[in-house]
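Researcher: Sequence recovery benchmark, item below. Answer with residues only.
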């Protein structure tokens, strides 16, 4: 396969630059250090009682851990999606494909996405598109990979930095149209791409009928920085502190729980997560599912599928074994853990009106 479009070239560069930025920044790691968990000295449960499996969109999944959106639409993407789909199938984990908008111009690249369904015929798979696509195209993309849900990425900050970015961010009418058509049959997940979501943003999405939000907070896979690497002339400013971290976005979600009661709502927590301990902290703060992109990209780029399985088995075992330490038998139980916040985080919580 040859690189024959700007979009394809962009996909290729995203993978390479994201991998270069893989190591977590101090800023990213520090967000998790700001939340301490109080463990009981008498947990009074055991490993045998732990049951991490649950239903998602009425389908069984083995763990509330998902492979988040990354790629499709280039030769390297094909290899990565193939491996990630095999991993998802092996563990029965949900998986999102990367943005499918490239298929509008280049439908011949469809196999870089359909490979995900071929390798994982029974798994839970999310399609992925930007907010400006017509319902008919969205439905086509869902049908193409028999997706169980559609992630709609909201990426104004990325478009701002992208050399060929679209600077028109008037999305609400189209989001309403998507909700009233595609959304009647297929769950729609409103997703950030690594800059988090404030309470006001989350409330606006709930108002538009979205029950499922992927908060995707600040990550080293910072899409302003990634696009800046691709610019002929670099941006003038440094945007490492643009947006909210996942932890801050989860606090914003909690602040909303006090006013917005959404029984069916699910919080997909991603952005900056690499380890089971970080995932446990996200669950303790109210995440329903935890997603990772950069972690899985790194795994797929450096290991054959057999090694990926061994390495991720150890990751899942560690998560599983952490639950009884906290007296928990399911991930949902982790919400009962008593938390201690750093002064910085208390100040943040105060400022967003979280009691
Ligand atoms: C992404 N991400 C992304 N998100 C999205 O909704 N559509 C997309 O096409 C892509 N593409 C993409 C490519 C690559 C190479 C990476 C690493 C990431 C964003 C991703 O889903 C996630 O929101 C952020 O990467 C933050 O999570 P991590 O990487 O810190 O786990």
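Model:
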């Amino acid at each position: 396969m040859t690189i024959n479009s700007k979009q394809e070239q962009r996909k290729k560069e995203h993978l390479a630059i994201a991998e270069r930025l893989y190591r977590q920044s101090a800023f990213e790691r520090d967000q998790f250090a700001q939340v301490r968990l109080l463990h009981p000295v008498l947990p009074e449960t055991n490993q045998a009682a732990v049951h991490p499996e649950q239903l998602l969109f009425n389908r069984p999944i083995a763990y509330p851990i998902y492979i988040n959106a990354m790629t499709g639409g280039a030769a390297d993407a094909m290899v990565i999606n193939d491996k990630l789909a095999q991993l998802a199938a092996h563990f029965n984990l949900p998986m999102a494909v990367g943005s499918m908008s490239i298929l509008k111009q280049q439908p011949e690249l469809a196999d870089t996405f359909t490979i995900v369904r071929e390798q994982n015929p029974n798994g839970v798979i999310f399609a992925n598109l930007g907010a400006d696509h017509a319902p008919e195209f969205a439905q086509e993309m869902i049908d193409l990979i028999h997706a169980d849900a559609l992630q709609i990425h909201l990426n104004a900050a990325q478009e701002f930095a992208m050399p060929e970015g679209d600077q028109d961010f008037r999305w609400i009418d189209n989001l309403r149209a998507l909700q009233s058509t595609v959304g009647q049959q297929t769950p729609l997940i409103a997703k950030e791409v690594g800059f988090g979501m404030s309470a006001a943003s989350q409330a606006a999405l709930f108002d538009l009928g979205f029950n499922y939000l992927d908060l995707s907070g600040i990550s080293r896979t910072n899409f302003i920085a990634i696009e800046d690497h691709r610019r002929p002339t670099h941006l003038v400013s440094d945007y490492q502190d643009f947006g909210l971290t996942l932890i801050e976005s989860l606090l914003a979600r909690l602040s909303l729980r006090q006013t917005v009661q959404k029984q069916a709502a699910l919080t997909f927590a991603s952005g900056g997560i690499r380890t089971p301990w970080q995932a446990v902290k996200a669950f303790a703060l109210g995440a329903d599912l935890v997603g990772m992109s950069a972690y899985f990209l790194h795994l797929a780029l450096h290991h054959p599928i057999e090694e990926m399985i061994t390495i991720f088995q150890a990751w899942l075992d560690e998560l599983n074994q952490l639950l009884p330490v906290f007296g928990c038998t399911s991930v949902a139980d982790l919400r009962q853990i008593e938390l201690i916040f750093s002064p910085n985080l208390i100040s943040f919580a105060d400022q967003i009106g979280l009691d």
